[in-house]
Amino acid sequence: MRPSPTQHRVLVIGAVGRAGAAVLRERLGRVDAVPVTVLCTRAFAHLPRGLGHAVVDGDGWRAGLPHVSPSDEVVIVLDTRRHAREAVFWRPERAALVALMQALHARGVRRLELVHAPGHTPNAAERAAVQALGYGAREARVRPPSPRPGEAVTGGWLERLAAWMLRTLIDTLYALGMRPPR
Description:
Layout: E1 10-13, H1 17-28, E2 36-40, E3 51-55, E4 73-78, H2 97-106, E5 111-116, H3 124-133, E6 136-139, H4 157-175
Parallel strand pairs: 1-2, 1-4, 2-3, 4-5, 5-6
């Protein structure tokens, strides 16, 4: 499942945690969305529209390189796995991140974004590599989790309905790219 060299797509590496979910929501929710592919350790049975996958054979950072083409816009997400099911997303070791970025640059990738989840600040070597290679880095826009059913508003049906409508509206706005208030 190698991409054609002229096809533009977004290739997401390490789509785990809230930051990975935020990146996928952001990229798939755009009006002018280009195809999005995630690197994974095994094939998905069902995928949302616009999302593809490429199965990586191996754990080392070099194993993902055959799935990258120079026309790709690569997004590398640094976050912590929250659930065992997120092990399906392939991700390189953090110690190999600089080597991976250099290899991607050598393969002709000119658009790469390094996304750090809250609490995952870039180290000096990562900052230097991002700057030297001309890539971008940002902190992920992670929406706050919705209240759990046990934390739902208590009271009459009208209050519960209003709370549900507000949660739905806020979740939709975050999915469309609204930034959380600071």
